[in-house]
Specification:
The chain has two domains: 38-58 and 66-225 and 346-376, no CATH class; 228-330 and 397-513, 4-Layer Sandwich (Glutamine Phosphoribosylpyrophosphate, subunit 1, domain 1), CATH 3.60.20. Helix content is 33%, strand content 18%. It has helices at residues 13-24, 29-43, 80-87, 104-112, 125-133, 139-147, 149-153, 156-162, 178-190, 199-210, 217-222, 249-261, 273-290, 306-315, 420-432, 437-442, 468-476, and strands at residues 5-10, 53-59, 65-70, 135-136, 174-175, 226-229, 231-235, 238-242, 334-341, 346-352, 362-363, 368-369, 400-404, 407-414, 446-448, 460-463, 481-484, 494-499, 505-509, 516-521. The longest helix is centred in the middle third of the chain and has 18 residues, at 273-290. It is globular and about 60 Å long.
Length: 528
């Protein structure tokens, strides 16, 4: 009998180790991914938190594929007119007006229903230990602390955790989060309802109301994660699967479908850079203008303008010039976990607080940091994405899975905010080219989108070691170019697990993060 194997890749080595421990305890890929997901809320708090969101793709050994959408909603008492009076025509980037209902814990609960082998409390063991005993401040976290020191300084809860002596913790210093550990212990012992109706939720709601956020215990009790089919598109012999709206997964599929229409689906490594650039710009434009919660706005983001962009690319003409607008290049705000086991379970989890440290509000009683995903809403009454009570904002999170026939080929997850579809496309091209997961996630990349005020929407930030021919093609097509150092974190960090035709597992974790990837033997349950 062949030995059972498991693979996991995450952006922090301690989270990967938590996943390994879950495998060794007899868990499967779902258990390993959940252990890593909870650990990341402790060791990578600038990127994910109990107060954040989650979207995942989960595949069973029988081949069923489900999308778990645990993106939070606007509180019931959120008043659009009051927000316009307070903020004008645009929501702030941080603060109490940007907080939505935390979805991640309900997401973990829903994921478990798709085949977890270990108990609910088991997935919290490493996270609780990391929070109570402390972990060294990672390189990425220290960089985020420095970059966001001003907004963190305005929040006493954040300063108590991240600057306990009045100075921000340096890299390698011990980060302890004892109140978060207490909240995690209660959630582990009492189940997810501890946050969505129990004492932890009550304390969280009370603390947020004191800061001017109208989130209540009723909002928490009413919240439920959604489960929907994935959306998919073929690319040669493969099928690309991702998450439907309110997420931006459609943008990747628009690129995939266009490559097929243009006859480039069998040779993706040979796709001209300017073609990819135009497709990336197209997906960004559709996302920014049309993407919304489909329960509130019926907009065809998959097809609107699609025939026109394909026609332009066939003729290689008519590229719309970029406009100057609000910067939307990714920041350090998201984590992605990829896990597969030889029994056939596969999972891609994406978790986020949106901007680095989210709303920059850490509720001190619970130790829970809150996301600022609500800043993605529009205050324009005519926008499909206008804020409404109980509505989910347009969302950047988008897990990805690739199958060939009835078999999983690759599981991919990436950080990268608005650039996630573009990063997924480039990593996928490298994988189709025959690169290993590690080489694919390490390869130089580029992203279309502004980073600073005044930059055009078609500005390309590219890593300095990107192929000169790629840079030349983009320049010749009129994209404004901005060179950045190699392995730049704001161009995302990606994790991939590969499944060969004989079942061999390999994994890669992006050097832009503090992560690791591993493949290990899974003991039969009851042997340890």
């Amino acid at each position: 009998m062949a030995e059972s194997m498991g693979a996991i890749a995450s952006p922090h080595h301690l989270a990967t180790e938590a996943g390994e421990a879950a495998y060794r305890a007899g868990g499967n890929a779902i258990d390993a991914a959940l252990a890593a997901a909870t650990a990341l809320t402790v060791v990578y708090p600038h990127n994910t938190a109990v107060g954040g969101d989650l979207v995942a793709l989960v595949r069973s050994p029988e081949g069923s594929l489900a999308c778990v959408n645990a993106t939070g909603t606007a509180p019931a008492a959120r008043n659009p007119d009051a927000l316009r009076e307070r903020h004008g025509d645009r929501l702030p980037e941080r603060g109490p007006s940007t907080i939505t209902v935390p979805g991640a814990v309900r997401g973990w609960e829903e994921i478990r229903r798709h085949g977890a082998a270990l108990d609910w409390a088991d997935q919290f063991r490493a996270a609780i230990d990391y929070a109570r005993a402390g972990v060294p401040v990672a390189r990425s976290l220290r960089a985020a602390l420095v970059q966001d020191r001003d907004c963190l300084a305005e929040d006493p809860g954040a300063m108590e955790v991240f600057a306990p002596g009045g100075e921000l913790l340096p890299e390698g210093a011990l980060l302890t989060q004892k109140r978060l550990a207490g909240s995690l212990e209660k959630i582990a012992a009492n189940g997810p309802d501890e946050l969505y109706g129990g004492s932890v939720g009550a304390a969280l709601a009370a603390g947020l109301q004191a800061r001017g956020c109208p989130l209540t215990t009723v909002d928490l009790k009413r919240y439920a994660a959604g489960v929907t089919p994935a959306i998919s598109a073929p690319l040669g012999d493969f099928d690309i699967h991702t998450s439907p709206p309110n997420t931006q997964g459609f943008a990747l599929l628009r690129t995939v479908r266009a490559l097929t229409e243009l006859g480039l689906d069998s040779l993706p490594p040979d796709v001209p850079a300017e073609v990819l650039g135009r497709l990336f710009l197209d997906g960004t434009h559709v996302r920014d203008t049309l993407l919304a919660d489909p329960l509130f706005a019926q907009v065809d983001v998959e097809n609107d303008g699609f025939a026109e962009i394909v026609a332009q690319l066939r003729a290689r003409s008519g590229r719309a010039p970029g406009t100057v607008g609000r910067p939307s290049v990714p920041r350090g705000d998201t984590v992605g976990i990829a896990a597969v086991d030889s029994s056939g379970y596969a999972i891609s989890i994406i978790q986020s607080v949106f901007d680095s440290f989210g709303a920059a509000i850490l509720e001190p009683e619970t130790g829970i940091l809150l996301q600022n995903r609500g800043t993605s809403f529009s205050l324009d009454a005519l926008s499909p994405n206008v804020i409404r009570p109980g509505k989910r904002p347009k969302h950047t999170l988008m897990p990805v899975m690739v199958t060939r026939g009835r078999r999983v080929r690759w599981v991919s997850s990436t950080m990268g905010g608005h650039g996630q579809p573009q990063i997924h496309a480039q990593v996928l091209i490298r994988l189709l080219e025959g690169k290993s997961p590690q080489d694919a996630v390490s390869a130089p990349r580029w992203v279309v989108g502004p980073r600073s005020p005044g930059e055009r929407s078609d500005t390309v930030h590219y890593e300095a070691d990107l192929a000169e021919t790629t840079v030349a093609h983009l320049a010749a097509d009129g994209f404004p170019l901005c060179e950045v150092p190699p392995r730049t974190e704001f161009l995302g960090h990606t994790n991939v697990v590969s499944v060969e035709s004989d079942g061999t597992l390999t994994a890669g974790s992006d050097p832009r993060s503090d992560g690791s990837a591993t493949v290990l033997a899974i003991p039969a349950r009851g042997t340890e």
